[in-house]
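Section 5: illustrative case.
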C-alpha cells in the first residue's frame, strides 16, 4: 500500500477526508439533497427523477450518523475512493514526485470538489466512472471471467447512479468496437443487465414514468444562444475553474498511444460533443457534463508531469483555486463571508419559524418538492407537496406520501396567496402564507385518459380512473384543460364541462373508471400546441392528472 500510494499522498488524502467530514457536519443541506433524503426514507428500485443509488447511499450514511452527516458520510468515502482510483489509473513513473500537484489539480475541479461531500446522483456517478475505467484498463491487459464479472457489476452501478451513465458505456464501446466480438465483454453486458433487472421491473410497474418525463413531458423553452449554447461553453469553463485553460490544453495535445488512452479521448470528446448538440435543443445543466472530469483528470495530470511550463502554471492556479475554494467552503457555512445567498443558508431558521406557527400538524406545500423534504428533514414532521397544473410531476406524484395528510388537519402553505392564517419568510425574502384546513382531501392520483373522437377536431372522450382504495364522489370533482406552447410551458387554464357517456353513478369506486365526453374549448391565446386535463377537488387548483396531448391545428 505504501509503495503504491506515497506517504504524502495518504496524508493529504486523510486531510481531505477529514475536511469533507467536517464540511458535511456543519453545512446545511441543499434542496436536492433534502429531496434525495426523502427518497431514502422509503428505499425502492427507482424514483421519479433518478435511479436509486443516491437513496441507497443516504440510507447507508444514516446507519452511522444523524443529521447532515447522516446524509453525506458515504459521499465522503466515495470521494476518497475516487482519488485513490484516479491515482491508480496514472501509469507515469514520475507521478510520485508530483503528489501535491495531483491533489491541487483534482481539488480545483469545482464540481468534483463539491461532490466530495454533497450527496447527489453525480457523486456515485464519478466514483463508478473511475472504477469502471480501472476495470476496463485491466480488462484490456488481461481479459478474464473475474474482471468481466466485476466490470458488469460496476456498469450496473453506473446505471443505478444516473441515466447519463449510458454515455460512459457507449463511448468506451465506440473507442474499441471490436468488443462486440469479445466473449468476455458480452459476459460483462449480461451481468450488468441481470443486475439492472430490478430497475427495469420498477420502470415497467410505474409505466416508465421516469423515461416519459425526461424524454417527453419535461418543459423546455425557446432556443436562446446565450442561455443554451453559450451557457454550455460557460459550463465547460466552470467545471474546471481556474485550471480550465491548461486542462483543455492537455486534451488538445494528447495523442492516442493505446486502447486505454483512446477510451479516455472518446469518452471526453463524446460527452462534450453530445451535450454541445443537446445545447441547441435545451439548456445543459453544469452537472450533466461532470463525467468528463474523470478522464480529464488523468489526461491533465499526465500532461502536467511531462510539460514543465504547464506544470508551473497549474501549480500556481491550483494554489489560487485552493484558497478560493476553501473560502467558498467556509462561506457555505457562514453566509456573511460573501454577499450572496445560497441554498445552505438559513434553512434551519425558516423551518423553525414555520414550525413554531404550525405546531406538529402536517404541512402541505403547494408546488414545492424542494421545500417539503427540507422542512421534514429539519422539523421531523410529515409533509406533502401538492402539485398543480403550473408545476411538474416529481416523487410526490407517484409515492404514497399523500396518505400522510389525507383526512387530517393540515397547514396549506403557498407563495401564491396574499394573505393567510400565518406567514413566514424565506432567507431570500419571499413571503409564504399558510391556511389551516380541517379534514384535508386531495385526489392527485386520479388518472385522466384522453382519446379523440373520430371525425371531430374538438370532441374527446375522457376516462377517469380511481387508483385509491376508497370511493370518490364524482360531483366533488371539477375539470380543466391546461394549454401549453410547443415547449410544454403552461400558458392558460380553461374550465371544461364533461358529460357522462356511461352509467357512472354518484361514486367512483376503487379501481374503477368513469367515462365522459367533452368539447375542448378554444382558448384566446395563440400558438398553443398541447393540452393536459387537470382535476380539481375541494376548490384546489387542478392537478397533473393527464399527459400532454397534442392539439389538432
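Designed sequence:
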Amino acid at each position: 500500500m505504501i509503495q503504491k500510494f506515497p506517504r504524502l499522498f495518504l496524508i493529504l488524502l486523510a486531510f481531505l477526508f477529514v475536511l469533507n467530514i467536517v464540511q458535511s457536519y456543519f453545512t446545511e443541506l441543499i434542496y436536492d439533497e433534502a429531496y434525495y433524503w426523502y427518497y431514502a426514507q422509503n428505499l425502492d428500485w427507482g424514483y421519479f427523477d433518478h435511479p436509486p443509488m443516491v437513496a441507497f447511499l443516504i440510507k447507508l450514511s444514516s446507519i452511522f450518523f444523524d443529521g447532515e452527516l447522516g446524509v453525506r458520510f458515504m459521499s465522503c468515502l466515495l470521494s476518497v475512493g475516487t482519488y485513490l482510483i484516479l491515482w491508480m489509473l496514472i501509469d507515469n513513473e514520475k507521478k510520485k514526485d508530483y503528489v501535491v500537484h495531483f491533489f491541487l489539480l483534482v481539488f480545483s475541479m469545482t464540481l468534483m470538489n463539491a461532490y466530495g461531500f454533497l450527496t447527489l446522483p453525480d457523486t456515485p456517478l464519478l466514483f463508478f466512472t473511475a472504477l469502471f475505467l480501472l476495470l476496463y484498463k485491466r480488462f484490456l491487459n488481461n481479459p478474464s471471467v473475474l474482471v468481466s464479472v466485476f466490470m458488469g457489476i460496476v456498469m450496473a452501478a453506473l446505471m443505478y447512479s444516473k441515466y447519463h451513465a449510458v454515455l460512459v458505456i457507449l463511448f468506451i464501446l465506440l473507442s474499441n468496437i471490436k468488443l462486440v466480438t469479445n466473449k468476455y465483454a458480452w459476459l460483462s453486458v449480461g451481468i450488468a443487465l441481470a443486475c439492472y433487472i430490478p430497475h427495469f421491473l420498477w420502470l415497467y410497474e410505474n409505466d416508465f414514468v421516469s423515461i416519459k418525463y425526461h424524454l417527453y413531458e419535461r418543459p423546455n423553452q425557446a432556443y436562446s444562444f446565450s442561455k443554451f449554447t453559450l451557457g454550455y461553453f460557460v459550463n465547460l469553463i466552470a467545471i474546471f475553474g481556474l485550471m480550465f485553460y491548461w486542462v483543455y490544453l492537455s486534451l488538445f495535445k494528447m495523442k492516442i498511444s493505446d486502447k486505454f488512452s483512446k477510451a479516455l479521448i472518446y469518452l471526453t470528446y463524446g460527452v462534450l460533443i453530445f451535450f454541445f448538440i443537446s445545447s441547441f435543443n435545451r439548456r445543459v445543466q453544469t452537472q450533466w457534463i461532470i463525467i468528463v472530469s474523470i478522464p480529464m483528470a488523468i489526461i491533465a495530470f499526465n500532461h502536467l508531469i511531462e510539460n514543465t511550463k504547464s506544470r508551473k502554471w497549474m501549480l500556481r492556479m491550483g494554489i489560487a483555486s485552493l484558497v478560493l475554494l476553501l473560502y467558498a467552503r467556509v462561506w457555505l457555512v457562514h453566509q456573511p463571508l460573501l454577499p450572496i445567498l445560497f441554498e445552505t443558508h438559513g434553512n434551519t431558521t425558516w423551518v423553525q419559524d414555520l414550525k413554531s406557527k404550525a405546531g406538529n400538524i402536517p404541512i402541505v406545500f403547494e408546488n414545492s418538492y424542494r421545500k417539503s423534504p427540507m422542512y421534514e428533514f429539519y422539523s421531523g414532521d410529515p409533509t406533502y407537496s401538492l402539485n398543480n397544473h403550473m408545476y411538474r410531476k416529481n416523487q410526490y406524484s407517484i409515492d404514497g406520501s399523500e396518505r400522510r395528510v389525507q383526512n387530517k388537519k393540515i397547514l396549506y402553505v403557498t407563495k401564491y396567496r396574499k394573505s393567510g392564517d400565518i406567514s413566514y419568510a424565506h432567507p431570500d425574502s419571499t413571503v409564504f402564507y399558510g391556511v389551516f384546513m380541517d379534514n384535508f382531501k386531495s385526489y392527485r392520483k386520479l388518472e385522466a385518459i384522453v382519446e379523440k373522437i373520430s371525425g371531430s377536431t374538438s370532441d374527446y372522450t375522457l376516462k377517469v380512473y380511481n387508483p385509491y382504495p376508497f370511493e370518490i364522489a364524482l360531483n366533488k370533482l371539477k375539470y380543466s384543460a391546461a394549454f401549453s406552447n410547443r415547449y410544454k410551458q403552461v400558458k392558460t387554464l380553461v374550465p371544461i364541462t364533461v358529460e357522462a357517456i356511461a352509467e357512472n353513478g354518484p361514486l367512483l369506486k376503487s379501481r374503477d373508471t368513469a367515462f365522459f365526453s367533452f368539447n375542448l374549448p378554444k382558448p384566446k391565446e395563440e400558438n398553443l400546441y398541447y393540452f393536459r386535463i387537470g382535476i380539481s377537488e375541494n376548490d384546489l387548483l387542478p392537478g397533473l392528472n393527464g399527459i400532454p396531448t397534442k392539439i389538432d391545428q
